[in-house]
Queue: 3 jobs
Job 1
Amino acid sequence: MGLPEERGRTGSREQEEAGAQSRVQSWSPPPEVTRSAHVPSLQRYRELHRRSVEEPREFWGDIAKEFYWKTSCPGPFLQYNFDVTKGKIFIEWMKGATTNICYNVLDRIVHEKKLGDKIAFYWEGNEPEETTQITYRELLMQVCRFSNVLQKQGIRKGDRVAIYMPMIPELVVAMLACARLGALHSIVFAGFSAESLCERILDSSCSLLITTDAFYRGEKLVNLKELADEALEKCREKGFPVRCCIVVKHLGRAEMGTSDSPSQSPPIKRPCPDVQGKLKEKPKRIWPQISWNQEIDLWWHELMQKAEDECEPEWCDAEDPLFILYTSGSTGKPKASICGVVHTVGGYMLYVATTFKYVFDFHPEDVFWCTADIGWITGHSYVTYGPLANGATSVLFEGIPTYPDVSRLWSIVDKYKVTKFYTAPTAIRLLMKFGDEPVTRHSRASLQVLGTVGEPINPEAWLWYHRVVGAQRCSIVDTFWQTETGGHMLTPLPGATPMKPGSATFPFFGVSPAILNESGEELEGEAEGYLVFKQPWPGIMRTVYGNHERFEATYFKKFPGYYVTGDGCRRDQDGYYWITGRIDDMLNVSGHLLSTAEVESALVEHEAIAEAAVVGHPHPVKGECLYCFVTLCDGYIFSPTLIEELKKQIREKIGPIATPDYIQNAPGLPKTRSGKIMRRVLRKIAQNDHDLGDTSTVADPTVISQLFNHRCLTIQ
C-alpha cells in the first residue's frame, strides 16, 4: 500500500485529490488544533518513546501516579515471559497493587477532579429527536444503584455477567457496575444471534444476563428480548440454566410515566423518572409483544427504584480480570474459533486512559465521539473506559450513519459541537458513495481531529476524509490495534507526526514493533513481513478465558519471544508502518506474495468504485489468482470496459503479477453488523462452495445469494 499517484487530468477529481495528498505531506496544524502541552513534538515523542521502551517500569510508574490505588505495588512493577521455550507465557503489571477502575473513572472524577456536574455523555437515539444527557455525578449514582441491584442478585467478585444491549446509557451503567463489584462483564454485540449469545454465556459460565426489551436500528425493529429468551432456552437445553435476566424497558419507556425522582433509571430519551427537560415524542412505531418468564425475568426500573444510592467499590488486584470480550476466528465454526480475550484491571486502565489522552490530543473542553458499538473492543476502550478516565464528554449514539438520511453523522457533529471524531473506514467508504454534499451541507467547524479504526484505510478514502469531512484542516489519526492489545499500538499523534494517507505511522509509548521474515529473523530498514511486538505494554490481553494453551499457541508459538499480531506489515524508508492485512489475506500468486489490502486500495482509487474486496481463488497454473468483488458508486454501470480499466489500473499501481483473473459486480458485500467484510464467505462464493459455515453474524444474508447468482465463471 502506498500513496496514490497523480493521474494528471486537469481539473479532475483525481488531480484535486493528488493535490490534497501533496498538501497532506506538508501538513501543519492551524492554531486552533495545535497540540496541547501534553502532546509532544516529534523529537520529544521519539525521546519519550525510547524511554517508554527502555524503562517501562519508570515510564508507566509515573503515569500510574495519576490514578487512585488503595495499596501500592509491593513487588516488581513488571514481570513477563514472551518465550514459550522458556516456560509459561505470563504478563504481570503492578501485581499486588489494588484499585478499582470504576472508582477511577467516576468517583475520582467527581470527588477529586470536582467534575461531577460535567456531562459524561450526550445520548443520541435512533431518531434525531431522541436525546438526553447524563453528568458524571448522575452516572456515578446510577452505577452505585445498579451495583447494589447486582449484589442483591448474588453477584460477587469474580462472577461473570453477560450484557446484551443496544447503545443506551444503561449499557454503560451495567458494565461499570460489574467493574465496581469486581465481576467480569462479557458484552455481546446486540446484532449477534441467539446462538452466538448462548455460546458466550456457556463459555464463561455467566450467572446473570442483562438485556433490553427491543430497539430500532434505522427502520429495522430488533426484538432483543425474544433473542435473549431463545439463547437462555438453548443454555437450559445444554444443562446451564442462567438464574436471572434483568430487562431494560427501552422501547416501552413511555409506559413508565414520569416522576421527579432521579432514582429509577439513568437519563434516557423519553420523559421518565430522571430525565431533565421535556423530550419530543417518538414517531409512531410498532411495539413488539414482550414475552416474560416469571421465574427469572426482572425489570431494571423496578429493581432500581428499591436500590440505595451508594455502594463501596470492591478493591481488586491490578492483575484481576476486568472483562471478557469474544472474538471469532476465520473458520466459520464458532465453537472452534470463539476466543474469550481477558483484560485485567490495572494495566488496561493505564493504557486506554493514556492512549485516549495523547492520540486524540484530549482537552477538557472537547466533545469526543467514537461511533463504535460498545459490543466491540473499540467501544470498551474509547466509548467507555478511556474517555471517562480522562473526565471527557462523549457522544453515545444508538443509530446508524444513513438513518434518517446519509448526513446523520455530520448533523450530530454540529448538534453537539464534536471536536474529536473516531470511526471506521467502512463507514467512510459507505458515505463516500453519496458524494460531498451530504457532508458539506453541515458546518463541521468544531472538528479538530479525525480518527479511523478497525482496518487499514485506503488512501482514496483517507484523502476524502481529510478533504471533505475535515476540510483539509483536521489531523487524521489512523490507528492500528486489536481486541487483544486493548488500545492503540501504531498511530500518529496529532500535530506531532507528519501524516501519510493510509499509514498507521509510529508505535505508541511502550510499544516495540518488529518485522520478521518467515524464518523469524528481524528485518531492518525498509522491510515487509510479519508484524510482531517484542515486549509487553500495559493493555495487552493476559489469556484466553479458560484456555491458556490456546493463548500461547495463537500469539506466541510461531515466533518464540514475540507477540504475533497475525498481520502483515511494511515499513517504509521514513520508518512509517503500513498494515498490509491479515496474514491469511496475503495471496501467493506465481510465487509472489500479494496483499489483498493493496489490491483493494488500487481498485477503489478508480472513480467508479465505492468499495472492493479481494480474495484468492485456486488456479491451475499460478496456484492462486485474484478474485475481486467491486461495489459501484451511484451513476456507474458495470461493463467489460470498466473491467478492463480496473485491470489496467492494478497493473499500473502494483504490477502485471497482480492483474485479477476475475472481477465481479457486487451491489453489496457480506459484512458483520460492525461493518467488517466477511472475506471467509467471499472465498466460498468465489469457489462456488455453498458450505459457508456459520453465517449468523452477516448483517444482510440476502447479499450472499445475490453474489452466488452473479459469480464469475471460473476454472479450477
Note: The two ends are 29 Å apart (CA to CA).
Job 2
Amino acid sequence: MLHVVQYRPLRLITQTSLFSMCLKVVLSRPVAFAQIWKSWFSSRSLVGNKNIILMGPPGAGKTTIGRIVGQKLDCPVIDIDDDVLETTWNMSVSEKLQDVGNEQFLEEEGKALLKFSASGSVISLTGSNPMHAASMQHMKKTGIVVYLDVPTTVIMSRLKSMKVDRIVGQSLGISLKDILQFRKQFYKRWYDIRVLCGGDVAAEVVAEKVLDAVKRYQNSELETFISTRSSRSGRSMEKDCHKYFSDVVTEGLAPDGGLFVPERRLPKFTAGEWQSLIEATYIERAQVILERCIHPADIPASKLAEIIETAYGENFTCSKIAPVRHLAGNQFLLELFHGPTASFKDFALQMVPHIFAYCIPRSCNYLVLVATSGDTGSAVLDGFSRLHDADKQRIAVMNFFPEDGVSPIQKSQMIGCQKENAWSVGVKSDFDFCQTAIKQIFTNSDYTGFLTVEYGTSLAAANSINWARLLPQIVYHASAYLDLVHQAIIPLGSPVDVCIPTGNFGNILAALYAKMMGIPIRKCICASNENNVLTDFIRAGVYDLRGRKLIPTFSPAVDILKSSNLERYLHLISNEDGQLVTQLYNQLENQGHFQLRKDLLEKLQQDLVAGWCSEEDCLAAIHSVYSTTGYILDTHTAVAKVVADRLQDRTCPIIISSTAHYSKFAPAILRALRIAEINQNPLSQLHLLSSYSPLPPVHWGLLETLKKKGNEDHQVCAADMSMLMSCIETLIQNHFM
C-alpha cells in the first residue's frame, strides 16, 4: 500500500527553536502573535486528520486550487494524476489510457486509488476517479469530498484552450459535451460539499470558497433558527433554545407562538454563482440553492438530491417544472401549476413530506396538521400519500378546510386525495378560523402533552408557517429570473419586477428571500382580491381587522385576512426585533389592529407595492387575455394581471406568478368566457373547457382525480375547538393504535 505522508518538503523546526521564535514574537508584537496563533490553530483544526478531497471534471482546476488550499493550510498537497498514478504506472496518464483503453483504464485507476492512503492532506482527484465506486468509497472515508462545480460550457472552453483531445470515455461519435454531462451523475453521488465555480473566477477566489465551505460543513452549530418573537437578551441567555433545521421542520411553530427564521439570515450568491446556473436545469438549480440553505448535518447533499429528484422527477407534467411564458409586452407568466394537484403548493409539498420523514425520529409517530384556503389541502394530501409504506405507518396528515369556502373542484380534489394516512375535514367556518385553531392547538402544551403520553403521537405543521415550506418557493422565483437571462430577454444583473397574488404572504415572502440571496428583483407587487387587508397595510402601514369580514371570491386561495408569513417579514425589516413583533401581534390578537412605525413602513415600501382587484375586473381580465391570446388565466393569476397592469411602470420585465391552473376554478372561468350553460358536475365542466382547445390544456391530474370512483365521504365539523380536537384524537386512534 502506498502511504503518502508529505508531498513537498517542509522546513524542520526543533521544539527549542520554535519556542525561541514564539518568545521573540510574543515580546515584540503580542497582538500579531495572537493573530498568527489563532490562524495556525484554525487551519490545523480545519483539517485535522481528515483530507480535503477535491473532485470535479477535467479542467475544473483541481490541481491548481488544491495547491493554493494546501499553502493556506500549510498541509501536504497530493495530485492523484502526478503523485499516485504516474508514479505507480511509470508512464503518463495519457499513455496509459491509450495503451489499455477506457474500461481497463478505469479499473486500473481504481485499483491504484484503493492502495493509496493519506491523512491531513489536500487531495486532487482525477476527473474519472468518481466513476469507480469502490475506490471512491475508500476515499470518502478519509475526508470531506468537495465538488468543484464548473459549467459544462466553461469546461469545454478550457479543455480546448489546453488542447486536451482525449479524456476517459471519449470515442468516435460521442461528443465531449455528452461525456461531461454523463459524468455529472457520478460527481453528484460522492460529494459532501459543492463549490460553484464560474468561468472568470480566479483560482485564489475558488480556494477561499473551498475553505469557507469546509468551515461551514464542520460548524453546523452556526446555522440555527430563532423565533420571530424571541428577544435578543433572551437569545443570549438561553442558547439551548436555538433550533436546527431538522428541529424546525418537525416542530413547525415556535413554543412562544412565533415563526422560526434563520438566525444568520439566508446565504447570498455572487453574480458569478448565478451565472453558473443559467444553463442548469430546474432540478440542478434547486439542488444548488437548497444545499446552501440546509446544512448537510441536517440533510446530506446526496439525500437532498434524492428528495429533489423524487419531488420533481416524474410528478410534474412539464419537463421545465416551472416554465416562464411570454404573455404580452413586458409581461411574463411563471407557470406554477404543472404539479400533480395543479397549484404552486406542489413545489413545496412534493418535497416537504420526504424532508419531514428524513428528519423525524424513527421511533415516533407524527400527525401533520394543515389548514387550507383551497390549494394547500390537496397538495399536502397528495405529497404525504406518496411516502414509502413504512413512513406512511408512522406519519399521517389531517387537512382542515372551510367547508363552504373552496371551489367545488378543490373540494373534490381534497376528498379524492384522501388515502390511508391522509384525511380531510370540512369546517363550518372560514380559513382564518382553521389557521388560528391549528396555531392554538400547537401552543396548547396540555393537549399536545396529552397526545404524546396517551397515544405516543406528536403534532407537526405543513402550512407555510413551517420553514421547510418556504425554501422550495425561493427556488422557482430565482429560476424564473435565470430563465429570462437564458432566453436573452435581459442580461444578468438587470432588474425585474414580480407580481404575486397573495393572502398569507408566503409566496411573496419567498420572492423577497430570493432578492436577499442576490436575484435583482426591484419591486414585489402584492396583488389582493376584495379581501385587501394586505394592500391597505402596505400602502398605509396599518393592519386593521376591525369590522372586516371575509368576502368569498372567485380566487379563494387569497381569501385570507390574517397573513401568517407577514410576521417573518416584519421580523426581518425590524432587524430581528422579537419584542416589537410580539408587541404588534399581541395587539392584533387583543385589539384587532396594529400600526407600523414610520421608519419600518419606509423600509417595507422599498420592497413592496400593492393593489387589489374586484370580482368584475378579475373575470374581465380572463376574457380579455383569452380573446387576444387564446390563453386562459386562472382567477388568482387574473387578479395579479389586473394589479400588474395598474402598477407596473414598464421600464423592466415583470414576472407574474401563475399560481394555479384554471381547471380548478371551472365555473368562474366558464362565466368569464361567457358560456351560458354550465353543468354543475365538475368533470363535465372540465370536458366543456377542454372542447375549446385552450392554452394550456386542461390539467391531466385534475381529470384523473375527478374520474376516480373512490370514497366521496369526508368528515364535517362545527367551528369549535373541542370538535377539532376530537377529530384529531379519532384519527390518531384509527391510524396509529
Note: The chain has a mean pLDDT of 88.
Job 3
Amino acid sequence: CLTQLCSPFAEKTGKVLGEFCRCYKEQYGVALFNSVRYEIEGNGGPQAQLLHRKVPLEDHVIYSGNLFQYIEENKKWRNRFCLVPHNYGLVLYENKLAYERDMPPRVLVNSAGYKILTSVDQYLELVNSSLPGVSPKSGHSPILKCPTDFPLILWHPYARHYYFCVMTGKEQEKWRAVFQDCVRHCNNGISEDSKVEAPAFTDAIRMYRQSKEQYGTWDMLCGNETQVLSNLVMEELLPELRNTIGPRLKGKAQERQRAWIQISDAVYRMVYEQTKAQYDATTAKCEQERPQMESTIRTDMDQIITSKEHLASKIRAFVLPKAEICVRNHVQPYISSILEALMAPTSQGFAEVREVFFKEVTDMNMNIVNEGGLEKLVEYMEKLSHLAFHPVKMQSCYEKMEQLKLEGLQQRFDVSSTSVFKQRAQIHMRQQMDDAVHTFETLLHQELGKLQAKEELCKSIQRILERVLKKFDYDSSTVRKKFFREALLQITIPFLLKKLAPTCKGELAKFQELIFEDFASFILVENTYEEVVLQSVMKDIMQAVKEAAVQRKHNLYRDSMVMHNSDPNLHLLGEGIPLEWGEEPSAQPEPEPERRRRLKQVVSVIQDDEGILPYEVGAEALLQPSAPGQDPGAPPSSPAGLEEIREALQEESLGAAGEEEEEQRLVNGTNGLRESAEATLSHYATPASPPARAETSSPSMGTASHQPSDKETGEEVSSVGRECSSPQPMGTTESSEGVQTEF
C-alpha cells in the first residue's frame, strides 16, 4: 500500500533531481577552475601554530550504556544497549550480551537532520504542526506516552522518529549531550578534503534554491550529499504529499498521525534511493570529463582569468552602484551589531575550551605527582587524547554557543535559524581542542626519552602546557576571525541578492555574450555577479572584524600580529606515524594480536554510572529510582587543591618561562591573508564539514540484519573490570555495573 502511495512522487523527484544535476554540472567546471587557480597561485594565510591530527582517532567507542526504546511495532518499551562508535552513528543492540557476542544490531541510526527533544510536549507540538488539521482533542490520549519524566526523542521533519527514556535527570542530560554530539557530527557530512565536489555541490544547492526565490540560511543542509539532496527534494514534495495523502487518512487523530509519520518516512526512503542513484551517476560523469577540463584550464589559465576579469568589470559597472547603495542603507548600520552578537558567545566557548584543556592537563600532572611518574603517564595520555570527543566534558564549551541570539537582526536579514552558526562554531571548538591535545602529546612524547625523575616530568608537562596554550590563543584568534567573516557573509549576501534581484537579475543574460565559448564551462555570469555583490560588502566586514581585533575585544589578535614559528621541527613531528601511548618510547612494537586484544577491551570514553536496567520492565519498575552514582566528570580533588598545584607548578616553571618568551614573541608583520572572491563566496555557502565519515546506506536506517562492521559499531567488549574502592584518576570512569573505561 505504501509503495502505491509513493510511486506518483517518483516522477516529481526525477524532475527536481534533473534540474539540480544541471546546476551541479555548471558549478563543477567553476569549482574545478577555482581549485586549479588556487593551487597555482597558492594562499598567503597565516600558518596554524597547533598541529592537526593527520590520522583520525579510530577503534574507540564514544559512549555506551543502557536506555529504554519505544518499539512502535508492539507499542512497548524495551531496554536496549546503545553504542556510539567513532563515526557517531547510533547503534542499538538487544542487550549488552548481544553486542559482546557479535550479534547484529537491532537499529542503526544516522542522526543527520534530527533534533533532540527532552519533552513530550515539544514533540507533540511538532507532530501536530506537521499535518495541519489533525490533532487529538482535549482529554484524548496523545500519540506517545512516556513512562518516566525523562524522555529523549529524535525528531526529523521527514524520516522516522526514535523514542527513548531514562530513569533520572542526570542520565537524561548525559544522553542528550551524546545525542547532540552525534547530530552535530553527522550534520557536517560533506568532506572538506574535497576541493572540487564539495563547493560544486553547495553552490549548486544555493543556486537551485535561489532559482525558487529561496534565499538565506537553510536548516536542512545536513548530512552527506545524498542526504542534503534528499532533504531538498522532500522540501518540494511535502506540500503536495500533504494535500494528496492527508484527506485519505482514516481513524482517530493519533492513528492518522502515526500513519502520516510512516508514509513520510517511506517517501523519504524512496527519495533517498532515487537521489543516490542519480547523483552518483552525475558525479561519475563529471569525474570522467575532469581530465580534459583540467588540461584546458592549465593550458589557457591566463586567457580564462583575463576573460573573467573583463566580464567582472562590465558587471561591476552595472551592479556596483546599486549594490553600494543597498549596503550603505540596509547592511552597513547593522554589521557591528551582528558581529557583537556573534563574538560574545563564540569567544566564551573558545575560552572554555582553553580552560577545560588546562584543567585536564593540570589534573593529570597533579595525579602524576601523587601516584607515580612515567608508569601512570601512558594511562593518562590515552584518556587525554580523546578529550575533544568526550561529549560530557566538552558540553560546557558547546553550551556557551547556545546563548547566541540575533534578535531583530534575524528577521531583518531573513535568517531562519541560528543553528547553522552554532554548530559551525562548535565544530571549530572541537577541532581546536583536538589540535591542542595532539600538539601537547606530540611535544611530550618527544621529551620522554630525556626525562629520568618524576619531578622533571612534571616540570616538562607544565612547560609544554604553557607553550601549547600560547599557540592555542593565536590559532583561536585566527579561527574566530575567519568564522566571524564567514558568518557575516552568510547573513548579508543572501539578503543583498534578494534585494538586488528585481533590478539586476533580469539584466544578467546580456552579459553572456562576453564569455568565449571555449571558456563557458569555467565562467558563469551568475557566479561572477555574486562575486561582485560580495566585493561590495566585503570591505565593511573586514573593517568591522579588524576594528574588533584592534580594540582587543574578546582576546582577538590584530591582523598585523604574527607569531614567529619558533618550533621549526614541530610540524615535521606531526608528519610522523601516529603516537602509540600504549607502548613505552623504547619498547618494541606491540604484536598485532595483542594490540587487537587490547583494542577490544575498549568500552567507551564515558560510561553510565547507574545500575543495570532490566531487559523488560513494566511501569512500576521504570518509575523506581536508581541508586545515585559518582559524576564521572568530577575532579579528583577539591578546587583548593587544584589552585595549590597550579601555583606550585607555576613557580617551578618560572625558570623556563624566559626561554619560551623569546620563542612565542609577537611582532609586527603582514598577515598575508589573500582570499580570492571565488573561494570566499564558495565558503559562505558551504556547511561545516568535519573529516569525512562513513556513509550509511539509508538516511536513517531502521532494523538491520547484517553483521555490523567496525566502522558502524566500533570494537566489541571482551573484558569487564571490577569496581575499585580507591579514588579514580581524572579521565577514568566506572559504572556500578563494574565496567571500567580503558584505552
Note: The radius of gyration is 27 Å.
